[in-house]
Amino acid sequence: MELTNFNDTVFRLYLYADATKMIHYTTDKNHEHELCDTIRDTILDFVDELAEQYYGYQGKPSYSSFTKLSDLDINETDDLAQLCKSASDLVDMLRSEAEKDSKLGNIVSLIDDYKGKMNKNLFLCTFDKISGK
Questions:
Q1: Which residues contact 54 (CB under 8 A, 6 or more apart)?
Q2: Dihedral angle over CA of 113, 24, 74, 68, nearest 10
Q3: Separation between Cα atoms, residue 52 and residue 106, nearest integer Å
Q4: Which pick of 5, 28, 72, 132 has the fewest CB atoms within 10 Å?
Q5: Which of 15, 12, 29 is nearest to 125 (CA)?
Q6: Is pLDDT at 120 greater than 80 in this prediction?
Q7: Burial of residue 87, with CB atoms counted within 10 A of its CB: 0-12 exposed, 13-18 middle, 19 or more buried
Q8: pLDDT at residue 29 above 80?
């Protein structure tokens, strides 16, 4: 797994987590606020554990190996369901790469757990037209 792509994915996940907070502030209903926070927490907990495991295996990156945040992009949307799906789909490439290295089996499991949680969150987005659909 190439370090630059991994680092970019980590930063993009943080951007998606921040975007859920922006949606949180624009919702009118308490359960929408709570779901935004749940999704944000799911992303943040996952990305921290993912980075810790990967860097523990590959070694700590240098600061200069990270792309500037201003140079990264994400699928910007105010649709919570779409954001949730994008943040989930982002890790598919990492999973494919990690699957090729038996020493990264824990990362594959971590990604699978995350995707399961995000699928649950995505399902919850369909209730009460939270996602706008």
A1: 1, 6, 104, 107
A2: -100
A3: 11
A4: 28
A5: 29
A6: yes
A7: buried
A8: no
Amino acid at 92: D
| Cα angle 80, 55, 60; round to 5 | 120
Q: Retrieve residue 26's tokens.
A: 């624009």
pLDDT digits (tens, 9 = 90+) for 39-69: 999 999 999 999 999 999 888 888 888 777 6
The span from the CA of 61 to the CA of 83, in Å, is 28
Q: For residue 20, give the amino acid letter.
A: T
- Identify which of 3, 12, 13, 9 has the alpha carbon closest to the alpha carbon of residue 93: 9
Distance CA 3, CA 9 (A): 10
